Amino acid sequence: MQLKQPIGASLTAAACGLLGTLPHVAVAADDSDRWQADTALFYWGEGDGRVQDMSLRAAVHRALGDDSSVDANLTIDTLTGASPSGAVLSNSVQTFTRPSGAGSYQVPADTTPLDDSFLDTRVAIAGTWQQALGESMRWKAGVTASGEFDYQHYGANAWLERDFNLRNTTLYAGAAIGRDDIRPVGGAPLPLTAMRGVGDNSSKLADDSKDVLDALLGITQILTRRSLVEITYSYGQSTGYLTDPYKVLTVVDAVSGLPVAGSPGSGLNLYLYERRPDSRTKHSVFGEWRHAFDRDSFALSYRFMADDWGIRSHTVEGRYRRNLRPGLYIEPHLRYYQQGAADFYRTELVNGAILPQFASADYRLAQGDALTAGLKLGRPSPDGEFSVRLEYYRQTAEPSAGSGIGYLANRELVPPLSAVIAQFGYKFSF
Amino acid sequence: MASPCEVLCETEEAAVANHISEHAAAEALRIEQKYSRYRDDSVISQINTAHGRPLSLDEETARLVDYGATLWRLSEGRFDLTSGVLRYAWRFDASQPPPTRAAVTELMKRVGWQHVDWKHPRLTMPDGMEIDLGGIGKEYAVDRVAEWISGQHAVPCLVNFGGDLRCVGPPPASGTWQVGIESTTQPGQAAGCIAVATGALATSGDTYRFIEIDGKRCGHVIDARTGWPAPHAPRSVTVAAPTCTQAGSYSTLAMLHGADAEAFLDAEGIRYWCLR
To answer: Smallest Cα–Cα separation from B200: which of B243, B158, B139, B147?
Structure first.
C-alpha cells in the first residue's frame, strides 16, 4: 500500500520545528565504489555556412578507497563547414588551390574568401590518477592524447597541492608537457611563398611538429563560510611549427587595393602562405571569486594574458546560479573577451612593400572582442542531473592598421562571427 | 543510546577535538537520561506514570512529541509514539518464539495516538498507555550535537551515534567520509560503501534484532496499526537526508511499508540503499 502523497515537505517542516533550524547545504551522498559519469552533447554552429562542431564528451570518475581516485575523459568532435582562408575580398572571382593541391575552388566577387575544404574528426582521450599524501597533500598525474586527420598530440601532466591553515588555504602547482605532430594535407607550405596551381606541390614541405610546456602556480583561499577566492599564474611556452599551414595573405596593389597576379601560368592571384614565429611564450593571471548565498551562488572571474607575439587579452566572466527549487536551477552566464592584435597580424600585404619577417591574416590574431551570453537550466535529482545550455557568441575583429587601400576602403575586411552554442548534459552514477 | 557513539573530527588542534568530544558526550548523555524509559527520574517515566492526569511538558519534550505526532499522521498510523508497550510481547530474540495473537491483541488496547489528547505543551494520556521516544531520540541527539558543532567550529566532523550519522563543517581532506553499510548476512562486514560529504545517513535494519515467524524473518519495526512487523520488509534501509532526524524517519517509515519500501522511497525522490 502506498501513501498517497510524498511526505517530504511535511517531514522537512516537522524536522525544522523540532530542531529549530535546518542546514542550508544539499545532501551529497553516493556509493563510493561507483563510477560517476558526466556526459554532454555539444553543438557549436557559426552563421553564414562557417564552422559547425558537433561534439560528444564523456568523463568518468571513480574513487578508489579513501585516498585515491581515477578519472578518464573522451571527446569526439566532428567539424564541418568553411573558415576564412586569410585572403581578402576582391571585385572579381578569386580562384584558390585546395590545400591538397588536387583541386581548386572559386569565391565570387565582393565576398570574403572561405576555405570550404574544412572537414575533420578529432578524438581526444585523457586519464588522470589522483592520490592523497597524508591528510593535507594530494598529487595527480595524467596522460593526454588526441588525433585527427592532420594532427596528433601526446602529453603528460603532473599536479601537487597542499592545504594549510586548517585547510582554509590550498596551494597548488602543475605542469604539462606535450608534443604535437602536424601533417598538413598536401604538406606544410614554405612560409611566405606563393600559393601554386593545381598539381604543383613544389612549395610544400613534409611534416612538422611543436613542443608545448605549460606550468601553473595557484592559491585557493577560503574567506568566509560562504566565500572563496582563487588566484592562478600560468606560463605557457610553445616551440616549433606554430604556423597555420592552411592560411594565406593576399598581396594587393598599393593603389587599387586589388590582388596582384600570382606565379605565371598558375592562373592565381598572389597569395602568400603565412609565417609565424617558431616560439611563443604566454603569461597569464587569473582570479576568481565564488560566493554562496542561502540559496543561490555566483562566480566572477578575470583573466589577463600577455604573450611575446604582442597579444594582450582581458577576459571577464560571471555566472549566477539561482536554485528555483530543490530539483531545478537556472544559471545565466556572461563572458566578455578583448584582445589586442599580434605584432605580425596583417589583414593584407601590399605589393612592393618590404616583406615582413612574420605575417598572418588569421582573424584570431587581430584586435577584437567577443561576447558570450547564455543560460543553463539544470535538473538535479538523486539519480543524476540533466542540464541544457544555450548560448550566443558574437566576435568582432579589426583590420590591421594601414589596411583598406583602394577597393578595400570602407569594406568589411574581417567580417564579424556569430555562433550559437547548445549543450545537453547528463551526469549520473553507474 | 545502547550503541557506540563517536564523533570523528579532522583537526590538528587537540583543544578543538576535546571541546567537541566533551560537549558531544555530555549532550548524548543528557538526552539519554532525559528520555530513558528505564530511569525513574526521566521525563518519559513521569509521563508514563501520570495515570491519566494532564501534564505540561517542557519545550524540548513538547517539540519531540510534536514531531512524533506528525510522523503518526504522515505514516497514517504506522508509526506511533505509544507503540512501545508492544515490547512486552516482542522480544526480538531469535531464540524466543513469536508472541501469541492474543498477547498482541491485548497489548494493542494500550496503543493508539488517537486516544491521546495532545495540545502543545499539554499531554493527557489514558492510564495504562506509555510513550517511547526511542524511535526519534538517537537521530535527534545526532542533529543536536551537529548543530552545536556547526555553531562553534569550522572543522570537518562526522557525528555517528550507532550508525545514524551526520556530516558537519567542510568536507574532509579526502572529499568525502566513507561509510560502510553493514552486511545483513555477515555482521561486521560491509555490504557496500557510501561516500558522503554533506547531509546525514540513518539506517533501520534487523541484523541483530529479528525474529522468525513461520520460518520468515521479521524485522524489529512494528506496524502500530496491527501490532505485527510489516511483512516483507527489507533487511536494512539506509537513507540520505539533510538531517539525521529526517533520514531516520524515512528509514523507519520505509521499513513500515514492507514490500513497498522501495516504492515509498522512490516516490519521495531521495537517495537510499535497501538490502533485502
So the answer is: B243
| Mean pLDDT across A148-171 | 93
- The reply to whether A169 touches chain B by the CB within 8 Å rule is no
Lowest mean pLDDT among A213-227, A378-392, B101-115, B219-233: B219-233
From chain B residues 37-56, the ones with a CB under 8 A of any chain A CB are none
Number of structural domains found in chain A? 1
| Contact criterion met (CB < 8 Å) for B75 and A3 | yes
Cβ of residue A135 closer than 8 Å to a chain B Cβ: yes
Cα gap B264→B145, rounded to integer Å: 29
**Predicted local confidence at residue A368, as pLDDT:** 97
Say whether B67 and A167 touch across the interface (CB within 8 A): no
> Residue B166: its pLDDT value, please?
95
Per the listing, cell 531521495 goes with B270
- The x, y and z cell numbers of residue A281, run together, are 611564450
CB contact under 8 A, A6 and B240: no
The second-level CATH assignment, the architecture, of B176-276 is Roll (3.10)
Residue A166 domain flag: yes
The rounded distance, in Å, linking the Cα atoms of A38 and A72 is 11
Strand boundaries in chain B, DSSP class E: 5-9, 55-56, 117-119, 122-124, 157-161, 164-168, 177-182, 190-198, 200-205, 211-213, 216-218, 222-223, 228-229, 236-241, 272-275
Give the C-alpha separation, B92 to B106, whole Å: 19
Percentage of chain A modeled with pLDDT above 70: 97
Q: Which residues of A touch B76 (CB under 8 A)?
A: 3
Query: Which helix (H) or strand (E) element contains residue A339?
Result: strand A328-339
Q: Using the beta-carbon criterion (under 8 Å), do B74 and A11 form an inter-chain contact? A: yes
C-alpha to C-alpha distance for A268 and B140, rounded to whole angstroms: 84
Q: Calculate mean pLDDT across residues A262-282.
A: 93
Nearest-CB residue to B195 (from A14, A32, A382): A32
Give the span between the Cα atoms of B175 and A67, in whole angstroms: 9
Q: How confident is the model at residue A199 (pLDDT cuts 50, 70, 90)?
A: confident
Residue B215 banded pLDDT, cuts 50, 70, 90: low
Under the banding of pLDDT at 50, 70 and 90, the label for residue A31 is: confident
Q: Do A132 and B173 touch (CB under 8 A)?
A: yes
| Chain B contact present for A108, CB below 8 A | no
pLDDT at A263: 81
Q: List the CATH number of the domain containing A188.
A: 2.40.160.40
List the single best residue of B120, B145, B177, B193 to mutate versus A (max A Cβ within 10 A): B193
Query: Are A166 and B178 an interchain contact pair (Cβ–Cβ within 8 Å)?
Result: no
Distance from CA of A67 to the nearest CA of B (A): 6
**Which structural domain, as residue segments, surrounds residue A160?**
34-429
CB B147 within 8 A of CB B245: no
Check CB contact under 8 Å for B195 and A381: no
Of B76, B170, B246, the CB nearest to A167: B170
Provide the pLDDT for residue B190: 67
- At A44 the pLDDT is 96
Checking if the pLDDT of A3 tops 50, the result is no
Q: Are A97 and A268 in contact (CB under 8 A)?
A: yes
- What's the gap in Å between the CA of B163 and the closest CA on chain A? 15
Q: Which of B232, B25, B13, B241 is nearest to B145 (CA)?
A: B25
Closest alpha carbon to B63 in B31, B26, B110, B22: B31
ipTM of the complex: 0.89
